[in-house]
Amino acid sequence: MTRVLFVCHSNAVCSPIAEALLRHLAADRYEVTSAGLQPSDIEPNALAALHRLGVNTEGLHSKGLDRVADQYFDIVISLCEQVEQAAQAVPAARFMAWHFEDTSCCSQPEATKVAHEIYERIKLLVLVQDRQEKPLW
């Protein structure tokens, strides 16, 4: 099982969206969590965007990076520039930076746009990871 951590500043929009989407797409192959430097409540519009995509958000909650900092991950993904350095300090085999505008409050159209952008990147991540584990030839 591949362990993935998504990190953003507030753990209110981007990282919980990413956590829920990866879990939705490939929970059988990925153990996924998200965290933030200064966690705040998950933005209701982020949850609404996930619901519109048919993604289950049960159990999704904001947490601080300190709650996972001593754990090892296969992949750590920073979702905003403000947390890149802190995310790189988490023990991991690989680090990626996918930078989005992370705000603790966003409009419904912004949340929907971010959810779709993250969804596309996660689909690519899963495809690449699957190909590395099971070559085509």
From TrEMBL:
Protein name per UniProt: ArsR family transcriptional regulator
Q: Which organism is it from?
A: Zobellella denitrificans
InterPro entries in the cross-refs? Ptyr_pPase, Ptyr_pPase_sf
Q: Which Gene3D superfamilies does this one have? A: 3.40.50.2300
Q: Which Pfam families match?
A: LMWPc
